[in-house]
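Changelog-adjacent note: as of this version, every example in the card shows the full chain rather than a window. The one below runs 84 residues end to end.
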Amino acid sequence: MAVKERVGLVVSNKMDKTAVVAVENRSIHPKYGKTVVKTRRFKAHDDQNQCQEGDRVRIRETRPLSRTKRWVIAEIISRKTLAQ
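Full-length structure tokens:
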């Protein structure tokens, strides 16, 4: 069985060892043809607390770690850049 992976943006890291990752799904509406954006938020395990808000990360499905946490952060793809 294949392991599910998603790429998303960290929207919160206020919890200890947990980050909230928002994953966007873009699809074309079947009748109207407009691009529809649906966003799901996943709680992912971040063992070293190294994710910051705005980072793009890859998350991987795992066994249940808590009541709402079923994902783990596999890698940090890019860090948030500070605009000056």
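Structural remarks: The chain has one domain: 5-78.
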